[in-house]
UniProtKB/TrEMBL annotation:
Keywords: Methyltransferase, Transferase. GO terms for biological process: methylation. Its EC number is 2.1.-.-. It comes from the Bacteria. It is an enzyme of class 2 (transferase). PANTHER family: TRANS-ACONITATE 2-METHYLTRANSFERASE (PTHR43861:SF1), TRANS-ACONITATE 2-METHYLTRANSFERASE-RELATED (PTHR43861). Residues 38-134 form the Methyltransferase domain. This is Class I SAM-dependent methyltransferase. InterPro entries: Methyltransf_25, SAM-dependent_MTases_sf. Gene3D superfamilies: Vaccinia Virus protein VP39 (3.40.50.150).
Length: 260
């Protein structure tokens, strides 16, 4: 299910204010600008592809997202392809034509792939969407630093839009956390707490070893991995697991017994 915070247009309008452009966006923009055909899975409001086109990208840019509220904002720019769906839909009628040189999942979108079958199918679909030698880049939060322990109501944030309207957003994690899936709520309210709207989410936190195994099983070879947006090493206390992998040759996958 799509999170209410992304599907509802009145809440989706706050996404860019709550998640302003940062070092991670610069990291992905460099990758996008060096690729001719790019697919952004979980593109959200389309900020990355908007910026790439504004910077002069002349190739194919395609954004895919299952949330109507987010896509409504992405579609304000019409010189980019926008598709409604998730990664699994790439394997069906929503497959966006020719394969891509680069597929990205930004904003920790990879972590919404909670179930084993969903993860397996999504990785297979992404692999199939890549051209020979194409790359898949994404990031997940490092579970070893337990970032969800800081998602508490006392750390709520407030943002104000251009019309002077303010919203307060607070998180509360469902405790205890067991396994690698963290479930939590996100509450949107005015400064006086009136008329709160609650969105519920689930994110999966895979460690680097398990992540590598899942990627290999889908025919994706890890080429680069970093622990932060400055391309620092992936260590136990690094905040991120930033991964760039490449599509393994089809013959390699068959030799290992993987499907096409």
């Amino acid at each position: 299910m799509v999170d209410f915070a992304y599907a509802d247009r009145s809440l989706a309008q706050w996404y860019d204010l709550l998640n302003p452009w940062g070092p991670g966006d610069d990291f992905y923009l460099d990758l996008v600008m060096s690729a001719d055909a790019v697919l952004d899975v979980g593109c959200g409001t389309g900020t990355l592809l908007h910026r790439a086109r504004a910077r002069g990208h002349r190739g194919r840019l395609c954004g895919l997202d299952p949330a109507d509220g987010m896509l409504a904002r992405a579609r304000r720019r019409t010189d980019v392809e926008w598709l409604s769906g998730d990664a699994l839909s790439l394997a069906g009628g929503n497959r966006p034509g020719p394969v891509f040189d680069l597929v990205v999942m930004t904003g920790h979108a990879f972590q919404v792939l909670v179930g084993d079958e969903e993860l397996r199918g999504s990785l297979a679909a992404i692999r199939a969407a890549l051209a020979a030698g194409g790359r898949f880049a994404f990031e997940t939060r490092n579970p070893l630093v337990r970032p969800w322990e800081r998602w508490t109501p006392d750390r709520a944030v407030e943002v104000t839009d251009a019309d002077g309207v303010t919203v307060r957003v607070a998180h509360r994690v469902d405790l205890p956390v067991r396994g690698d899936v963290v479930r939590f709520s996100e509450t949107f309210s005015g400064p006086d707490g009136a008329r709160p709207q609650v969105s519920r989410s689930s994110l999966r936190f895979l460690d680097a070893r398990t992540l590598g195994e899942r990627l290999a099983g889908a025919g994706l070879t890890v080429e680069e991995q970093y622990g932060d947006w400055d391309r620092g090493p992936l260590t136990a206390d690094a905040p991120e697991i930033i991964t760039i992998c490449r599509a393994a040759p089809a013959g390699t996958r068959r030799a290992l017994g993987w499907g096409d």
